[in-house]
Amino acid sequence: MAEVRVRFAPAPTGFMHVGNLHTALFNWLFARSQGGKFILRIEDTDELRFTPEAVQVIYDGLRWLGLDWDEGPDIGGPCAPYVQSERLAGYQETVQQLLDEGKAYECFCTPEELEERRELMRARGLPPRYDGRCGELDEAERQKFRDEGRASCIRFRVKQTGTTVINDLIQGEVAYENSLIADGIIQKTSGFPTYHLACVLDDEAMGITHVIRAVEHLPNTQLHLQLQEALGIQPPQYAHLPLVLGPDRTKLSKRHSAVSVVEYAEMGYLPEAMFNFLALLGWSPGDEQEVLSREEIIKRFSLEACSSSPSVFDLQKAEWLNGEYIAALAPEELAQRVLPFLVEAGLFEAEPSEKRMIWLGQVCNLMKERIKLLTTFTTWARYFFTDDYEYEDRAREKWLSREDTPDKLDMLADRLDALESWNVDSVEAAVRGLAEELEVGAGQVIHPCRAAVTGTTIGPSLFHLLEVLAQGDVVARLRRTAALGRAGQLRPRKHA
RNA sequence: GGCCCCAUAGUCUAGUGGUUAGGACUCCGCUCUUUCAAGGCGGCAGCACGGGUUCGAAUCCCGUUGGGGCUACCA
Predict the structure, then answer these.
(1) Residue A424 belongs to a domain with what CATH number?
(2) Strand B–CB A282 distance below 7 A
(3) What's this model's pTM, rounded to 2 decimal places?
(4) A254 is catalytic
(5) What is the structure's pLDDT at A315?
(6) Strand B within 7 Å of which CB atoms in A 84-103?
(7) ipTM score of the complex?
(8) Looking at the predicted structure, is the pLDDT value of residue A495 above 60?
Protein backbone atom coordinates (compact mmCIF):
# COMPACT_ATOMS: atom_id res chain seq x y z
CA MET A 1 0.00 0.00 0.00
CA ALA A 2 1.19 3.47 -0.83
CA GLU A 3 2.52 5.67 1.91
CA VAL A 4 0.00 7.91 3.61
CA ARG A 5 0.59 11.59 2.91
CA VAL A 6 -1.57 14.24 4.54
CA ARG A 7 -1.29 17.95 4.74
CA PHE A 8 -2.25 20.86 6.88
CA ALA A 9 -2.87 23.78 4.55
CA PRO A 10 -3.74 26.94 6.43
CA ALA A 11 -4.18 30.37 4.97
CA PRO A 12 -1.81 32.77 6.67
CA THR A 13 -4.32 35.22 8.04
CA GLY A 14 -2.60 35.97 11.32
CA PHE A 15 -4.94 33.74 13.25
CA MET A 16 -4.41 30.23 14.47
CA HIS A 17 -7.33 29.33 16.64
CA VAL A 18 -8.05 25.99 18.20
CA GLY A 19 -10.23 24.97 15.27
CA ASN A 20 -7.28 25.24 12.92
CA LEU A 21 -5.06 23.52 15.38
CA HIS A 22 -7.61 20.75 15.80
CA THR A 23 -7.50 20.09 12.06
CA ALA A 24 -3.72 20.12 12.11
CA LEU A 25 -3.69 17.74 15.06
CA PHE A 26 -5.98 15.21 13.41
CA ASN A 27 -3.90 15.26 10.23
CA TRP A 28 -0.78 14.81 12.26
CA LEU A 29 -2.30 12.01 14.30
CA PHE A 30 -3.41 10.20 11.19
CA ALA A 31 0.02 10.54 9.60
CA ARG A 32 1.82 9.37 12.71
CA SER A 33 -0.56 6.52 13.36
CA GLN A 34 -0.15 5.34 9.78
CA GLY A 35 3.57 5.85 9.58
CA GLY A 36 2.93 8.45 6.89
CA LYS A 37 4.04 11.98 6.18
CA PHE A 38 2.63 15.19 7.55
CA ILE A 39 3.10 18.11 5.20
CA LEU A 40 2.70 21.80 5.88
CA ARG A 41 1.55 23.92 2.97
CA ILE A 42 0.87 27.63 3.09
CA GLU A 43 -2.17 28.67 1.08
CA ASP A 44 -1.49 32.33 0.51
CA THR A 45 -3.55 32.80 -2.61
CA ASP A 46 -5.47 35.63 -1.05
CA GLU A 47 -3.10 38.49 -1.76
CA LEU A 48 -5.25 40.90 0.15
CA ARG A 49 -5.21 39.13 3.46
CA PHE A 50 -1.71 37.77 3.45
CA THR A 51 0.81 38.96 6.00
CA PRO A 52 4.31 37.53 6.40
CA GLU A 53 4.04 37.45 10.20
CA ALA A 54 1.04 35.20 9.85
CA VAL A 55 3.22 32.33 8.73
CA GLN A 56 5.15 32.62 11.94
CA VAL A 57 1.90 32.38 13.90
CA ILE A 58 1.25 29.06 12.18
CA TYR A 59 4.71 27.73 12.96
CA ASP A 60 4.40 28.83 16.57
CA GLY A 61 1.06 27.14 17.03
CA LEU A 62 2.16 23.85 15.53
CA ARG A 63 5.42 23.84 17.42
CA TRP A 64 3.75 24.64 20.69
CA LEU A 65 1.52 21.60 20.36
CA GLY A 66 4.48 19.55 19.22
CA LEU A 67 3.18 18.84 15.71
CA ASP A 68 6.30 18.42 13.62
CA TRP A 69 6.04 18.41 9.86
CA ASP A 70 8.03 16.26 7.46
CA GLU A 71 7.88 18.66 4.55
CA GLY A 72 7.13 22.34 4.54
CA PRO A 73 8.15 25.84 3.50
CA ASP A 74 10.96 26.12 6.01
CA ILE A 75 12.45 22.64 5.63
CA GLY A 76 11.63 21.97 1.99
CA GLY A 77 10.96 18.51 0.62
CA PRO A 78 10.53 16.64 -2.64
CA CYS A 79 7.48 18.66 -3.65
CA ALA A 80 8.84 22.12 -2.90
CA PRO A 81 7.91 24.88 -2.90
CA TYR A 82 5.26 24.52 -0.19
CA VAL A 83 3.96 28.04 -0.51
CA GLN A 84 1.28 28.54 -3.12
CA SER A 85 2.35 32.02 -4.15
CA GLU A 86 5.57 30.40 -5.35
CA ARG A 87 3.72 27.90 -7.51
CA LEU A 88 1.82 30.33 -9.71
CA ALA A 89 3.31 29.19 -13.03
CA GLY A 90 1.95 25.70 -12.55
CA TYR A 91 -1.57 26.87 -11.84
CA GLN A 92 -1.55 29.19 -14.82
CA GLU A 93 -0.36 26.45 -17.09
CA THR A 94 -3.23 24.23 -16.00
CA VAL A 95 -5.68 27.05 -16.47
CA GLN A 96 -4.44 27.53 -20.01
CA GLN A 97 -4.87 23.85 -20.67
CA LEU A 98 -8.46 23.94 -19.43
CA LEU A 99 -9.05 27.03 -21.54
CA ASP A 100 -7.67 25.29 -24.62
CA GLU A 101 -9.86 22.28 -23.99
CA GLY A 102 -12.93 24.45 -23.59
CA LYS A 103 -13.35 23.27 -20.00
CA ALA A 104 -12.85 26.78 -18.73
CA TYR A 105 -13.61 30.20 -20.07
CA GLU A 106 -12.88 33.85 -19.58
CA CYS A 107 -15.43 35.75 -17.56
CA PHE A 108 -15.60 39.50 -18.02
CA CYS A 109 -18.20 40.27 -15.41
CA THR A 110 -16.94 42.65 -12.76
CA PRO A 111 -17.31 41.89 -9.07
CA GLU A 112 -19.74 44.80 -8.86
CA GLU A 113 -21.93 43.43 -11.63
CA LEU A 114 -21.91 40.02 -10.02
CA GLU A 115 -22.87 41.40 -6.66
CA GLU A 116 -25.64 43.43 -8.22
CA ARG A 117 -27.07 40.39 -9.96
CA ARG A 118 -26.83 38.30 -6.82
CA GLU A 119 -28.80 40.94 -4.97
CA LEU A 120 -31.42 40.95 -7.65
CA MET A 121 -31.79 37.18 -7.57
CA ARG A 122 -31.98 37.12 -3.81
CA ALA A 123 -34.68 39.76 -3.95
CA ARG A 124 -36.66 37.50 -6.27
CA GLY A 125 -36.16 34.56 -3.96
CA LEU A 126 -33.86 32.81 -6.38
CA PRO A 127 -30.55 31.17 -5.52
CA PRO A 128 -27.92 33.87 -6.01
CA ARG A 129 -25.50 32.16 -8.28
CA TYR A 130 -23.61 32.99 -11.43
CA ASP A 131 -25.66 32.41 -14.56
CA GLY A 132 -22.78 31.31 -16.75
CA ARG A 133 -23.35 34.03 -19.33
CA CYS A 134 -19.68 34.48 -20.26
CA GLY A 135 -19.51 30.79 -21.01
CA GLU A 136 -21.78 31.46 -23.98
CA LEU A 137 -19.56 34.11 -25.52
CA ASP A 138 -17.90 33.41 -28.87
CA GLU A 139 -14.37 34.48 -29.66
CA ALA A 140 -15.48 37.68 -31.39
CA GLU A 141 -17.48 38.78 -28.38
CA ARG A 142 -14.60 37.98 -26.07
CA GLN A 143 -12.26 39.99 -28.24
CA LYS A 144 -14.66 42.89 -28.08
CA PHE A 145 -14.55 42.83 -24.28
CA ARG A 146 -10.77 42.63 -24.35
CA ASP A 147 -10.58 45.58 -26.71
CA GLU A 148 -12.74 47.52 -24.31
CA GLY A 149 -10.05 46.87 -21.78
CA ARG A 150 -12.20 44.69 -19.58
CA ALA A 151 -10.29 42.45 -17.25
CA SER A 152 -11.25 38.82 -16.95
CA CYS A 153 -11.08 35.96 -14.54
CA ILE A 154 -11.30 32.31 -15.49
CA ARG A 155 -14.23 30.11 -14.68
CA PHE A 156 -14.44 26.35 -14.74
CA ARG A 157 -17.36 24.96 -16.67
CA VAL A 158 -19.13 22.63 -14.26
CA LYS A 159 -21.31 19.73 -15.26
CA GLN A 160 -24.96 20.62 -15.21
CA THR A 161 -26.40 17.14 -15.06
CA GLY A 162 -26.25 14.25 -12.66
CA THR A 163 -24.93 14.22 -9.14
CA THR A 164 -21.50 14.27 -7.61
CA VAL A 165 -21.05 11.74 -4.86
CA ILE A 166 -18.47 12.21 -2.16
CA ASN A 167 -17.43 9.11 -0.27
CA ASP A 168 -16.24 10.70 2.88
CA LEU A 169 -14.36 8.70 5.47
CA ILE A 170 -16.09 10.54 8.30
CA GLN A 171 -19.29 11.96 6.85
CA GLY A 172 -20.20 8.95 4.81
CA GLU A 173 -21.73 9.20 1.35
CA VAL A 174 -22.91 12.68 0.45
CA ALA A 175 -24.49 13.51 -2.90
CA TYR A 176 -24.72 16.92 -4.48
CA GLU A 177 -26.88 17.86 -7.42
CA ASN A 178 -24.67 19.16 -10.24
CA SER A 179 -27.31 21.51 -11.56
CA LEU A 180 -27.12 23.46 -8.34
CA ILE A 181 -23.61 24.80 -8.53
CA ALA A 182 -22.32 27.59 -10.67
CA ASP A 183 -19.21 27.74 -12.81
CA GLY A 184 -16.56 28.42 -10.20
CA ILE A 185 -13.75 30.88 -10.55
CA ILE A 186 -10.42 29.11 -10.70
CA GLN A 187 -8.22 32.06 -11.55
CA LYS A 188 -8.77 35.58 -10.36
CA THR A 189 -8.26 38.69 -12.44
CA SER A 190 -4.97 39.12 -10.66
CA GLY A 191 -3.71 35.89 -12.13
CA PHE A 192 -3.75 34.18 -8.74
CA PRO A 193 -5.58 30.87 -8.53
CA THR A 194 -8.51 30.48 -6.18
CA TYR A 195 -8.41 28.03 -3.34
CA HIS A 196 -10.26 25.39 -5.32
CA LEU A 197 -7.78 25.14 -8.14
CA ALA A 198 -4.64 25.54 -6.09
CA CYS A 199 -5.79 23.02 -3.54
CA VAL A 200 -6.68 20.37 -6.09
CA LEU A 201 -3.47 20.85 -8.02
CA ASP A 202 -1.20 20.88 -5.02
CA ASP A 203 -2.80 17.87 -3.40
CA GLU A 204 -2.09 16.04 -6.63
CA ALA A 205 1.41 17.42 -7.03
CA MET A 206 2.30 16.62 -3.45
CA GLY A 207 0.92 13.12 -3.59
CA ILE A 208 -1.64 13.72 -0.89
CA THR A 209 -3.51 10.49 -0.20
CA HIS A 210 -6.00 11.77 2.39
CA VAL A 211 -7.50 15.22 2.57
CA ILE A 212 -8.48 15.75 6.18
CA ARG A 213 -10.07 19.14 6.65
CA ALA A 214 -12.96 20.84 8.37
CA VAL A 215 -16.47 20.04 7.20
CA GLU A 216 -16.97 23.60 6.01
CA HIS A 217 -15.14 22.39 2.90
CA LEU A 218 -17.51 19.53 2.24
CA PRO A 219 -19.70 21.47 -0.20
CA ASN A 220 -16.60 22.67 -2.05
CA THR A 221 -15.58 19.10 -2.61
CA GLN A 222 -18.20 18.81 -5.30
CA LEU A 223 -16.30 21.34 -7.38
CA HIS A 224 -12.96 19.78 -6.50
CA LEU A 225 -14.11 16.38 -7.68
CA GLN A 226 -15.26 17.84 -10.99
CA LEU A 227 -11.99 19.68 -11.40
CA GLN A 228 -10.10 16.48 -10.78
CA GLU A 229 -12.17 14.65 -13.34
CA ALA A 230 -11.55 17.33 -15.93
CA LEU A 231 -7.83 17.17 -15.26
CA GLY A 232 -7.61 13.42 -15.15
CA ILE A 233 -6.58 13.48 -11.52
CA GLN A 234 -7.26 10.53 -9.26
CA PRO A 235 -9.02 12.10 -6.24
CA PRO A 236 -7.55 11.57 -2.80
CA GLN A 237 -9.64 10.12 0.00
CA TYR A 238 -11.64 12.73 1.82
CA ALA A 239 -12.30 12.97 5.53
CA HIS A 240 -14.23 16.01 6.69
CA LEU A 241 -13.86 16.77 10.35
CA PRO A 242 -16.76 18.21 12.32
CA LEU A 243 -16.40 21.82 13.29
CA VAL A 244 -15.09 22.99 16.62
CA LEU A 245 -17.53 25.63 17.78
CA GLY A 246 -17.22 28.53 20.12
CA PRO A 247 -19.36 28.86 23.25
CA ASP A 248 -22.00 30.57 21.10
CA ARG A 249 -22.13 27.45 18.93
CA THR A 250 -20.83 29.13 15.80
CA LYS A 251 -17.66 28.36 13.94
CA LEU A 252 -14.59 29.47 15.82
CA SER A 253 -13.22 32.69 14.43
CA LYS A 254 -11.35 35.76 15.44
CA ARG A 255 -14.53 37.00 17.05
CA HIS A 256 -13.96 34.44 19.77
CA SER A 257 -11.31 35.13 22.33
CA ALA A 258 -9.33 32.20 21.03
CA VAL A 259 -7.41 34.22 18.50
CA SER A 260 -4.08 32.53 18.76
CA VAL A 261 -3.01 29.33 20.34
CA VAL A 262 -0.16 31.08 22.03
CA GLU A 263 -2.74 32.69 24.27
CA TYR A 264 -3.39 29.35 25.88
CA ALA A 265 0.27 29.08 26.73
CA GLU A 266 0.05 32.48 28.33
CA MET A 267 -3.03 31.42 30.23
CA GLY A 268 -0.99 28.65 31.80
CA TYR A 269 -2.02 25.64 29.74
CA LEU A 270 0.46 22.88 29.14
CA PRO A 271 0.81 21.91 25.48
CA GLU A 272 0.52 18.24 26.31
CA ALA A 273 -2.77 18.89 28.10
CA MET A 274 -4.10 20.90 25.18
CA PHE A 275 -2.98 18.13 22.83
CA ASN A 276 -4.92 15.59 24.85
CA PHE A 277 -7.93 17.86 25.16
CA LEU A 278 -8.12 18.69 21.46
CA ALA A 279 -7.72 15.03 20.52
CA LEU A 280 -10.83 14.26 22.55
CA LEU A 281 -12.88 16.75 20.56
CA GLY A 282 -14.52 14.63 17.91
CA TRP A 283 -12.50 11.54 18.65
CA SER A 284 -12.66 9.01 21.42
CA PRO A 285 -10.51 6.01 22.20
CA GLY A 286 -13.72 4.07 22.63
CA ASP A 287 -13.29 3.22 26.27
CA GLU A 288 -13.44 5.38 29.34
CA GLN A 289 -9.87 6.52 29.42
CA GLU A 290 -9.48 10.26 28.99
CA VAL A 291 -6.01 11.12 30.13
CA LEU A 292 -3.93 9.72 27.32
CA SER A 293 -0.33 10.33 26.43
CA ARG A 294 0.68 11.47 23.00
CA GLU A 295 1.94 7.97 22.24
CA GLU A 296 -1.27 6.31 23.35
CA ILE A 297 -3.33 8.67 21.26
CA ILE A 298 -1.22 8.01 18.18
CA LYS A 299 -1.49 4.30 18.77
CA ARG A 300 -5.24 4.32 19.17
CA PHE A 301 -6.21 7.02 16.68
CA SER A 302 -8.30 6.23 13.64
CA LEU A 303 -10.53 8.16 11.29
CA GLU A 304 -13.26 5.56 11.77
CA ALA A 305 -13.45 6.54 15.42
CA CYS A 306 -13.94 10.20 14.55
CA SER A 307 -17.37 11.61 15.18
CA SER A 308 -19.32 13.55 12.59
CA SER A 309 -21.04 15.87 15.02
CA PRO A 310 -19.61 19.21 16.01
CA SER A 311 -18.25 20.00 19.45
CA VAL A 312 -18.10 23.09 21.59
CA PHE A 313 -14.70 24.18 22.80
CA ASP A 314 -15.17 24.44 26.55
CA LEU A 315 -12.19 25.47 28.60
CA GLN A 316 -13.62 24.09 31.84
CA LYS A 317 -12.66 20.57 31.06
CA ALA A 318 -9.38 21.66 29.55
CA GLU A 319 -8.54 23.26 32.84
CA TRP A 320 -9.22 20.09 34.75
CA LEU A 321 -7.09 18.10 32.31
CA ASN A 322 -4.36 20.66 32.65
CA GLY A 323 -4.43 20.15 36.41
CA GLU A 324 -4.06 16.43 35.90
CA TYR A 325 -1.00 16.99 33.75
CA ILE A 326 0.53 19.44 36.20
CA ALA A 327 0.02 17.03 39.07
CA ALA A 328 1.71 14.30 37.09
CA LEU A 329 4.74 16.42 36.27
CA ALA A 330 8.02 15.81 38.11
CA PRO A 331 8.64 18.72 40.52
CA GLU A 332 11.80 19.82 38.76
CA GLU A 333 9.96 19.75 35.43
CA LEU A 334 7.15 21.86 36.84
CA ALA A 335 9.77 24.26 38.18
CA GLN A 336 11.01 24.80 34.64
CA ARG A 337 7.49 25.38 33.33
CA VAL A 338 6.55 27.78 36.05
CA LEU A 339 9.76 29.79 35.99
CA PRO A 340 8.81 32.18 33.16
CA PHE A 341 5.58 33.06 34.94
CA LEU A 342 7.42 33.76 38.19
CA VAL A 343 9.99 35.89 36.41
CA GLU A 344 7.20 37.77 34.68
CA ALA A 345 5.55 38.41 38.03
CA GLY A 346 8.84 39.65 39.44
CA LEU A 347 8.98 36.85 42.01
CA PHE A 348 12.04 35.00 40.78
CA GLU A 349 15.33 35.75 39.08
CA ALA A 350 15.52 35.04 35.36
CA GLU A 351 18.70 33.01 35.60
CA PRO A 352 18.52 31.10 38.85
CA SER A 353 21.31 28.93 40.21
CA GLU A 354 20.97 25.18 40.30
CA LYS A 355 20.40 25.40 44.02
CA ARG A 356 17.55 27.85 43.58
CA MET A 357 15.94 25.58 40.99
CA ILE A 358 16.11 22.67 43.38
CA TRP A 359 14.41 24.83 45.97
CA LEU A 360 11.79 25.87 43.44
CA GLY A 361 11.25 22.20 42.75
CA GLN A 362 10.44 21.72 46.43
CA VAL A 363 7.83 24.45 46.25
CA CYS A 364 6.40 22.87 43.12
CA ASN A 365 6.23 19.54 44.84
CA LEU A 366 4.01 21.07 47.50
CA MET A 367 1.79 22.94 45.08
CA LYS A 368 1.49 20.74 42.02
CA GLU A 369 -1.53 18.79 43.13
CA ARG A 370 -3.65 21.86 43.68
CA ILE A 371 -2.71 23.92 40.65
CA LYS A 372 -4.87 23.86 37.55
CA LEU A 373 -3.08 26.51 35.50
CA LEU A 374 0.53 27.58 35.58
CA THR A 375 -0.64 31.14 36.07
CA THR A 376 -2.38 30.36 39.33
CA PHE A 377 0.92 29.17 40.73
CA THR A 378 2.21 32.71 40.95
CA THR A 379 -0.73 33.82 43.05
CA TRP A 380 -1.32 30.74 45.15
CA ALA A 381 2.32 30.19 45.92
CA ARG A 382 3.25 33.84 46.20
CA TYR A 383 4.21 33.66 49.89
CA PHE A 384 7.04 31.28 49.08
CA PHE A 385 8.77 34.01 47.14
CA THR A 386 8.11 37.21 49.01
CA ASP A 387 7.17 38.58 52.40
CA ASP A 388 4.89 40.95 50.59
CA TYR A 389 1.67 38.96 50.58
CA GLU A 390 -1.89 39.87 51.49
CA TYR A 391 -3.64 38.77 54.63
CA GLU A 392 -6.90 37.51 53.20
CA ASP A 393 -10.16 38.34 54.88
CA ARG A 394 -10.89 34.76 55.67
CA ALA A 395 -7.59 34.48 57.52
CA ARG A 396 -8.25 37.73 59.37
CA GLU A 397 -11.74 36.68 60.36
CA LYS A 398 -10.96 33.21 61.56
CA TRP A 399 -7.60 33.70 63.21
CA LEU A 400 -5.65 36.89 62.84
CA SER A 401 -8.18 39.22 64.46
CA ARG A 402 -8.54 37.00 67.49
CA GLU A 403 -7.21 38.41 70.71
CA ASP A 404 -5.17 35.39 71.71
CA THR A 405 -3.46 35.03 68.37
CA PRO A 406 -0.59 37.55 68.70
CA ASP A 407 0.67 35.91 71.88
CA LYS A 408 0.46 32.50 70.33
CA LEU A 409 2.37 33.67 67.30
CA ASP A 410 5.12 35.21 69.40
CA MET A 411 5.44 32.10 71.51
CA LEU A 412 5.68 29.99 68.39
CA ALA A 413 8.21 32.39 66.91
CA ASP A 414 10.40 31.94 70.00
CA ARG A 415 10.21 28.19 69.79
CA LEU A 416 10.91 28.06 66.08
CA ASP A 417 13.74 30.55 66.47
CA ALA A 418 15.38 28.28 69.01
CA LEU A 419 15.30 25.26 66.73
CA GLU A 420 18.75 23.94 65.87
CA SER A 421 17.61 21.97 62.89
CA TRP A 422 14.94 23.07 60.47
CA ASN A 423 12.90 20.30 58.94
CA VAL A 424 9.40 18.87 58.90
CA ASP A 425 9.91 16.89 62.08
CA SER A 426 11.52 19.60 64.16
CA VAL A 427 8.95 22.15 63.06
CA GLU A 428 6.07 19.82 63.74
CA ALA A 429 7.44 19.02 67.19
CA ALA A 430 7.72 22.70 68.01
CA VAL A 431 4.18 23.47 66.87
CA ARG A 432 2.64 20.51 68.65
CA GLY A 433 4.73 21.21 71.72
CA LEU A 434 3.31 24.67 72.01
CA ALA A 435 -0.22 23.39 71.59
CA GLU A 436 0.34 20.90 74.38
CA GLU A 437 1.74 23.51 76.69
CA LEU A 438 -1.21 25.78 76.01
CA GLU A 439 -3.52 22.82 76.44
CA VAL A 440 -5.25 23.39 73.12
CA GLY A 441 -5.67 21.25 70.04
CA ALA A 442 -2.87 21.37 67.49
CA GLY A 443 -5.21 23.11 65.09
CA GLN A 444 -5.32 26.10 67.43
CA VAL A 445 -1.67 26.71 66.68
CA ILE A 446 -1.49 25.38 63.16
CA HIS A 447 -4.22 27.58 61.74
CA PRO A 448 -3.03 30.90 63.15
CA CYS A 449 0.49 30.02 62.07
CA ARG A 450 -0.61 29.30 58.51
CA ALA A 451 -2.62 32.49 58.41
CA ALA A 452 0.34 34.50 59.67
CA VAL A 453 3.01 32.96 57.47
CA THR A 454 1.01 32.64 54.23
CA GLY A 455 -1.79 35.15 54.65
CA THR A 456 -4.32 32.54 53.67
CA THR A 457 -6.28 29.71 55.23
CA ILE A 458 -5.58 27.20 52.58
CA GLY A 459 -2.54 25.55 51.10
CA PRO A 460 -0.26 22.57 51.48
CA SER A 461 0.61 20.83 54.74
CA LEU A 462 1.84 23.49 57.15
CA PHE A 463 4.91 21.62 58.37
CA HIS A 464 6.03 20.92 54.86
CA LEU A 465 5.62 24.45 53.72
CA LEU A 466 7.44 25.79 56.77
CA GLU A 467 10.31 23.48 56.01
CA VAL A 468 10.68 24.97 52.56
CA LEU A 469 10.60 28.49 53.92
CA ALA A 470 13.69 29.87 55.67
CA GLN A 471 13.69 29.66 59.44
CA GLY A 472 14.50 33.34 59.84
CA ASP A 473 11.74 34.38 57.46
CA VAL A 474 9.14 32.31 59.25
CA VAL A 475 10.11 33.73 62.63
CA ALA A 476 10.04 37.26 61.26
CA ARG A 477 6.65 36.76 59.66
CA LEU A 478 5.20 35.41 62.89
CA ARG A 479 6.49 38.38 64.87
CA ARG A 480 5.39 40.87 62.26
CA THR A 481 1.92 39.39 62.15
CA ALA A 482 1.68 39.37 65.94
CA ALA A 483 2.56 43.05 66.04
CA LEU A 484 0.05 43.93 63.35
CA GLY A 485 -2.59 41.98 65.20
CA ARG A 486 -1.98 43.80 68.43
CA ALA A 487 -2.15 47.07 66.59
CA GLY A 488 -5.61 46.06 65.41
CA GLN A 489 -4.61 46.10 61.80
CA LEU A 490 -5.71 42.61 60.95
CA ARG A 491 -9.44 42.98 61.29
CA PRO A 492 -11.46 41.84 58.30
CA ARG A 493 -11.73 44.58 55.70
CA LYS A 494 -14.95 43.47 54.15
CA HIS A 495 -18.10 42.40 55.83
CA ALA A 496 -20.58 40.08 54.27
C1' G B 1 -34.20 31.55 0.07
C1' G B 2 -31.54 26.93 -1.96
C1' C B 3 -28.22 22.82 -0.93
C1' C B 4 -25.60 19.94 2.63
C1' C B 5 -24.18 18.37 7.58
C1' C B 6 -25.35 17.53 12.74
C1' A B 7 -28.68 16.14 17.07
C1' U B 8 -27.27 11.15 24.10
C1' A B 9 -27.42 15.99 30.75
C1' G B 10 -24.82 22.97 30.69
C1' U B 11 -20.05 20.81 28.14
C1' C B 12 -16.83 16.54 26.05
C1' U B 13 -18.27 11.63 25.04
C1' A B 14 -19.37 5.64 25.13
C1' G B 15 -23.29 3.25 22.82
C1' U B 16 -24.30 0.50 15.92
C1' G B 17 -32.21 -3.46 17.81
C1' G B 18 -32.86 -6.20 23.97
C1' U B 19 -28.00 -1.89 28.89
C1' U B 20 -31.01 -0.16 35.68
C1' A B 21 -28.33 4.45 28.91
C1' G B 22 -21.74 4.02 30.88
C1' G B 23 -17.60 7.56 31.78
C1' A B 24 -15.49 12.64 32.32
C1' C B 25 -15.81 18.10 33.33
C1' U B 26 -18.95 21.57 35.94
C1' C B 27 -22.32 22.04 40.12
C1' C B 28 -24.17 20.18 44.93
C1' G B 29 -23.72 17.19 49.39
C1' C B 30 -20.98 14.11 52.70
C1' U B 31 -16.28 12.64 54.44
C1' C B 32 -10.95 12.86 55.86
C1' U B 33 -8.67 16.55 59.72
C1' U B 34 -3.94 20.60 59.81
C1' U B 35 -6.73 24.20 56.00
C1' C B 36 -8.90 23.33 50.84
C1' A B 37 -8.73 25.25 45.86
C1' A B 38 -6.23 18.67 47.50
C1' G B 39 -7.84 13.31 48.53
C1' G B 40 -12.05 9.75 49.22
C1' C B 41 -17.38 8.79 48.75
C1' G B 42 -22.10 10.06 46.95
C1' G B 43 -25.85 13.00 44.28
C1' C B 44 -28.53 16.27 40.58
C1' A B 45 -28.95 16.16 35.35
C1' G B 46 -29.52 13.23 29.09
C1' C B 47 -31.38 9.86 24.22
C1' A B 48 -35.00 17.32 20.78
C1' C B 49 -40.21 16.18 19.08
C1' G B 50 -43.85 13.30 16.14
C1' G B 51 -44.80 9.30 13.20
C1' G B 52 -43.51 4.64 11.37
C1' U B 53 -40.54 -0.48 10.88
C1' U B 54 -40.10 -4.29 14.74
C1' C B 55 -42.02 -8.93 19.64
C1' G B 56 -38.65 -4.93 21.09
C1' A B 57 -35.88 1.12 19.42
C1' A B 58 -30.99 6.15 21.83
C1' U B 59 -29.77 2.79 17.87
C1' C B 60 -33.22 1.72 11.31
C1' C B 61 -36.77 4.94 7.98
C1' C B 62 -39.75 9.49 7.21
C1' G B 63 -41.21 14.18 8.83
C1' U B 64 -40.82 18.38 12.21
C1' U B 65 -37.98 21.44 15.20
C1' G B 66 -33.36 23.29 16.59
C1' G B 67 -28.21 24.24 15.61
C1' G B 68 -24.32 24.73 12.09
C1' G B 69 -21.85 25.05 7.29
C1' C B 70 -21.77 26.35 2.16
C1' U B 71 -24.05 29.38 -1.44
C1' A B 72 -17.30 35.12 -2.54
C1' C B 73 -12.39 37.20 -7.88
C1' C B 74 -12.00 34.17 1.42
C1' A B 75 -10.01 29.82 2.53
Answers:
(1) 1.10.10.350
(2) yes
(3) 0.94
(4) yes
(5) 92
(6) none
(7) 0.95
(8) no
